[in-house]
């Protein structure tokens, strides 16, 4: 019952945010289309130029043509397509969170990767899978613009910095941030932006450009492999680590009283289990792989796992039995939460509607993808990985194609659709996860992950598709450099604003700072819409 309610609330949040955002874009696109086709022209000219205008707008983002718009689509059928896109967003969130990330975690454990390397490779791939496949799909789909995948990556980067970090500050602030991961992630992200500026300069993407990004990712992973030792060396030079650990460990019990230690152990165990059980699978793994101070978490785990002799006068067998019963009940609740087919007897009508809406996806995924997070299927993680890839690829292909179709119907450029609708849609699951983590006091981890995921999106999400496609085609990829240059400039400005806010406040992220970042994203959306309107009028 509890699991179904949690699942329903998660689905409701996804739909709320996705509907609100895509409705805004639909209204803006419809307004642009109506103005250009009915107010600025005669009815005859509007009907004559509608398809040509849509094709011309889409062709500005690449070589592919825009399919003919059907009469039912122009008459309002695009609303149904929007609904389909929202439904695909839900499917992507389910397959990534419940299956793909679990397989990547198993692969990381099988390869015995360190936490830093696993977080920068397989865990990052699980978090950024929609963006990666959107980029690849836009290049292999004959009806899609080559630039829509690039725009999705760029728009997702803006969303991650402004919205994800913004909501982290609002719900988790004020937060004191460690300067070392800030500088590390900021440096690599700045290098990525500079590289993209250079690649877009001539409006062509060659295989060399893709190879440079892939090689840059190899360098990034290599650094992450020695990240802990580098940070430790920096701490030894500055002495900051010792001070930080002393503060965080000061409240841990050190008295020789074993009864007191047992009581504190029970409390810490309950806190850790309760915290992790509240998170969805991705956030629970992120806590262990990307937290700013893994030493503290490791010491807590070691502390609660010690075999502690307990005096019978201070802790009776009845108390131990009660504790075991609570743990068994908690395990049962966690198992119920992992069962998506349980009817939510408790919850609002909307919760039940969303539960019913998710059933087709869960039915298809459960039949075709072995759930390696369950003991019976743990050894099947390679098949889980492969089948998840196929599902993500198929859903993303449809999503990009339908968003591209909406752009054709409304006369909205492919770059605009990618940088807004696709970017927000593929990033909403991460945003919801960051909110949950921030509420539990782990906002520092969410901030670091937001910037780090942008590095992966650019180096891998663009580098791999560019390299594969250019080698397969035997010719460069043509992109709309004018529009992309504007968005790249905005990426750079956003990065400067973000670091200015953080360091001016003494490396603190406050709720006010969060509201400022979210407001800037609102201005970004307004600018995107207005530039589309003015472009149409011109």
CATH class: Mainly Alpha
Strand content: under 5%
Total of DSSP H or I helical runs spanning 4+ residues = 21
* Structural domains: how many: 1
- What topology, given as strand order, has the largest sheet? 1-4
Chain oligomer state: single chain
- Span between termini: 57 Å
The counted number of beta strands is: 4
- Based on the coordinates given, report the CATH architecture: Up-down Bundle
Describe, in plain words, how this protein is organized in 3D.
By secondary structure, the chain is mostly helical. Helix content is 80%, strand content 1%. It contains 21 helices and four strands.
Q: TL;DR of this structure?
A:
This protein has 538 residues and is mostly helical.
Blueprint of the fold:
Elements: H1 2-39, H2 43-59, H3 71-110, H4 115-120, H5 122-140, H6 146-172, E1 175-176, H7 179-200, E2 204-205, H8 207-225, H9 227-238, H10 240-249, H11 258-278, H12 281-290, H13 294-305, H14 317-337, H15 349-368, H16 381-410, H17 414-439, H18 443-459, H19 463-473, E3 477-478, H20 481-504, E4 508-509, H21 511-537
């Amino acid at each position: 019952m509890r699991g179904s309610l949690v699942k329903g609330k998660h689905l409701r949040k996804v739909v709320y945010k996705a509907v609100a955002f895509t409705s805004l874009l639909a209204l803006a696109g419809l307004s642009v289309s109506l103005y250009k086709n009915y107010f600025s022209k005669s009815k005859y000219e509007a009907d004559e130029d509608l398809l040509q205008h849509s094709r011309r707008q889409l062709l500005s983002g690449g070589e592919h043509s825009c399919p003919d718009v059907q009469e039912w689509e122009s008459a309002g059928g695009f609303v149904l397509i929007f609904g389909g896109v929202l439904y695909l967003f839900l499917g992507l969130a389910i397959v990534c969170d419940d299956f793909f990330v679990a397989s990547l975690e198993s692969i990381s454990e099988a390869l015995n990767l360190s936490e830093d390397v696993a977080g920068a490779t397989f865990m990052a791939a699980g978090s950024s899978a929609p963006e990666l496949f959107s980029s690849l799909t836009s290049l292999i789909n004959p009806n899609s613009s080559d630039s829509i995948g690039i725009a999705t990556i760029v728009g997702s980067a803006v969303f991650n910095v402004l919205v994800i970090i913004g909501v982290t500050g609002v719900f988790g602030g004020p937060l004191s941030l460690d300067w070392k991961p800030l500088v590390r992630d900021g440096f690599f992200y700045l290098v990525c932006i500079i590289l993209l500026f250079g690649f877009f300069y001539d409006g062509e993407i060659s295989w060399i450009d893709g190879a440079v990004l892939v090689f840059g990712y190899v360098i990034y992973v290599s650094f992450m492999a020695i990240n802990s030792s580098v940070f430790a060396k920096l701490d030894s030079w500055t002495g900051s680590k010792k001070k930080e650990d002393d503060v965080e460990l000061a409240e841990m019990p050190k008295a020789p009283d074993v009864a007191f230690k047992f009581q504190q152990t029970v409390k810490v165990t309950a806190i850790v289990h309760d915290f992790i059980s509240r998170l969805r699978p991705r956030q629970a793994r992120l806590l262990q792989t990307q937290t700013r101070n893994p030493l503290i978490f490791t010491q807590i785990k070691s502390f609660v796992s010690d075999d502690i002799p307990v005096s019978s006068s201070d802790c009776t067998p009845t108390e131990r039995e009660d504790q075991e019963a609570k743990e068994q009940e908690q395990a049962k609740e966690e198992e119920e939460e992992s069962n998506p087919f349980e009817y939510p007897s408790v919850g609002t009508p909307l919760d039940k509607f969303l539960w019913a809406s998710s059933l087709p996806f869960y039915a298809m995924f459960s039949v075709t993808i072995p759930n390696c997070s369950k003991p019976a299927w743990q050894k099947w993680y390679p098949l889980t990985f492969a089948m998840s890839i196929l599902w993500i690829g198929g859903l993303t292909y449809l999503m990009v194609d339908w968003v591209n179709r909406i752009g054709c119907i409304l006369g909205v450029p492919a770059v605009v659709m990618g940088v807004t609708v696709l970017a927000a849609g593929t990033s909403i699951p991460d945003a919801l996860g960051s909110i949950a983590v921030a509420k539990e006091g782990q906002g520092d981890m969410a901030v670091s992950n937001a910037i780090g995921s942008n590095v992966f999106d650019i180096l891998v999400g663009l580098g791999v598709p560019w390299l594969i496609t250019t080698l397969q085609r035997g010719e460069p990829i043509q992109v709309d450099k004018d529009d992309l240059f504007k968005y790249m400039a905005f990426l750079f400005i956003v990065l400067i604003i973000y670091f200015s806010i953080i360091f001016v406040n003494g490396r603190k992220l406050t709720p006010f700072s969060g509201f400022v970042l979210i407001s800037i994203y609102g201005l970004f959306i307004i600018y995107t819409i207005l530039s589309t309107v003015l472009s149409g009028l011109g």
